[in-house]
User: Which sequence fits this backbone?
């Protein structure tokens, strides 16, 4: 049973579990946001993200109909993360049973990354889900990996789509996320860029670009002032200071790594606590991964070595 948490008129969050995908959470580790577009002919229900598997996608579409009284008509894949996009075929199957041809949207850069990364990502996700990996098998497409192919592609750096405005921001070289603002209120959705409940997750990212994108998001959202709220990859809704806090974390992490490399510290030493951030973060696995990545990226700049 999924929970649809109201965020305002015509807006809901499907909360994610914290941490990594496993058999217990069945891969539901990315927040989803649903929005009802009353201005469209007949009304359309949109979802930013479709979940981690066809089984989840079917449940999302079915329970949205039951609990919200509306049929999912449009889904968006905001960035190439399997836990956020592999539910697309299940949503499409359930929508078809309800007499709706689903539209699946993604920025062209995100769609290209999905096509390149998803085959490897599906294999890794199967391993994490263990017995629950059966969710990845789509009964409507037996023997076929649940790799979505968006039917509609966005281009450019920003635009309007249904009940949202959107912007494209970099996460790594050649890898992008899209961030979204509800047209009806100052609610921003930034999966892949923001998160709550612990240190940010910078795995597979260029941390300098993550800092840059968080700063860019803070600038974009400045006109909304204190009214701005943010939904990230995981965790509850965040306040208007979330982008600046994320930028400050990446800035402090990169500065600490630069100082450590220049001192010749032992790169195998535990990740240090960062002043101004919770002491508990020092022992968080994501902070450890971020530290290792920051070290590699700073080391490449200092010594001219290839980044890893």
Assistant:
């Amino acid at each position: 049973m999924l929970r649809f948490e109201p965020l305002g008129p015509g807006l809901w969050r499907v909360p994610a579990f914290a941490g990594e995908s496993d058999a217990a959470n069945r891969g539901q580790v990315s927040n989803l946001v649903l929005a009802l577009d009353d201005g469209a002919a007949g009304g359309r229900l949109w979802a930013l993200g479709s979940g981690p598997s066809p089984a989840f996608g079917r449940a999302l579409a079915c329970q949205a109909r039951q609990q919200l009284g509306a049929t999912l008509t449009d889904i968006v894949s905001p960035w190439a993360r399997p836990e956020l996009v592999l539910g697309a075929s299940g949503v499409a199957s359930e929508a078809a049973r309800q007499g709706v041809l689903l539209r699946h949207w993604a920025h062209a850069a995100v769609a290209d990354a999905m096509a390149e990364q998803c085959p490897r990502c599906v294999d890794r996700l199967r391993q994490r889900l263990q017995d629950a990996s059966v969710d990845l098998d789509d009964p409507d497409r037996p023997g076929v990996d649940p790799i979505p192919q968006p039917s509609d592609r966005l281009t450019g750096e920003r635009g309007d789509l249904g009940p949202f405005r959107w912007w494209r921001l970099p996460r790594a070289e050649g890898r992008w996320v899209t961030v979204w603002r509800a047209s009806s209120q100052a609610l921003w959705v930034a999966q892949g860029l923001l998160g709550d409940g612990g240190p940010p997750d910078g795995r597979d990212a260029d941390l300098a670009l993550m800092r840059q994108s968080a700063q860019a998001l803070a600038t974009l959202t400045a006109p909304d002032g204190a009214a701005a709220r943010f939904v990230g990859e995981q965790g509850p809704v965040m306040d208007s200071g979330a982008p600046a806090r994320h930028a400050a974390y990446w800035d402090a992490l990169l500065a600490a790594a630069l100082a450590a490399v220049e001192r010749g510290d032992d790169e195998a030493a535990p990740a240090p606590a960062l002043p101004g951030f919770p002491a508990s973060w020092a022992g968080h696995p994501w902070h450890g991964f971020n530290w290792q990545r920051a070290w590699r990226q700073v080391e490449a700049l200092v010594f001219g070595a290839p980044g890893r």
